[in-house]
Amino acid sequence: MVVMKWLMPQTHPLFVGVVRLLPAGLLVVLAGMLWQRPMPQGWRAWSWIGLFALVDGTLFQGFLTEGLVRTDAGLGSLLIDSQPLAVAVMAAFFYGERLSRWGMAGLGLGIVGIGLIGLPADWQNLQQWHWFTFGEWLMLGASLSMAIGTILIRPVTTYADPVMATGWHMILGSIPLLGLSLWREHPQLNEIGVEGWLGLAYVSILGSAIAYGVFFYFASSGNLTTLSALTFSTPVFAIICGRIFLSERLTTVQWVGVVLTLISIYLVSRKD
């Protein structure tokens, strides 16, 4: 989130989304071929991958990058990481997953922790509070898209290999974003320097190829609620990196939120 926010003044949001998806998807598919993973076969496999690509590729990255232009990195990660709540509800409804009492307490604690992280510095001034801005609604859209994508990985991997499905969903999901970027965003590359290209490489290889591949590989067989709850750590990392690289500072209340978030990750990850 911090690197993507830093890249925005140098290029355009949808182009960043394309770069995050397309090269990463090609790398994942190439890795799958080297590991002799089976390619998707049949209309059911490609239909599920296509739906997965639309929701977790096009919509998620589109909402995320456009929303990140209108919000800061810390707040963006806060809003996106409300998605474990939606995952917990949908996983219980569709797959019968249940959390222990400690897990439920951990989810509640995580909500409180992330809420504290997202409080503005002048949170005592009630006259400055307002409902979500357009950028914040976009981030919530990204959160819901990611949650639905996490739920979809189960039927997707019923018909396709999880590694190949992950790679192809990034490739297919990038195509609508590429079309929109070519139509709306000009110029795309003129202001990107060497550091900018390194940033794009980072969000594509580490932020997508490796992160997506590992996440959805485990999501295909693990407990979705517990796995999804680990994304509560994202705002923590965003805040730490924002402090180091963007000179952002935390209030005392936000530090309390960081501690509560880390505790919530432990509780949700407990087996009993």
Tell me the distance between the termini: 33 Å
- CA-atom Rg in angstroms: 19 Å
Structural class designation: mainly alpha
Strand/helix succession: HHHHHHHHHHHH
Counted up, domains total 1
Q: Can you walk through the features of this model?
A:
By secondary structure, this protein is mostly helical. The model has no long low-confidence stretch (mean pLDDT 82). The longest helix has 29 residues. The protein has 12 helices and no strands. It has one domain. Helix 2 crosses helix 9, helix 3 crosses helix 8 and helix 4 packs antiparallel against helix 11.
Secondary structure layout:
Blueprint: H1 2-7, H2 13-34, H3 42-70, H4 73-80, H5 83-95, H6 101-117, H7 134-159, H8 162-184, H9 194-219, H10 224-229, H11 233-245, H12 252-269
Helix pairs in contact: 2-3, 2-8, 2-9, 3-7, 3-8, 4-7, 4-11, 5-7, 6-12, 8-9
Please supply descriptive tags for the structure shown above.
272 residues
Summed up, what is this model?
The protein has 272 residues and is an all-alpha fold.
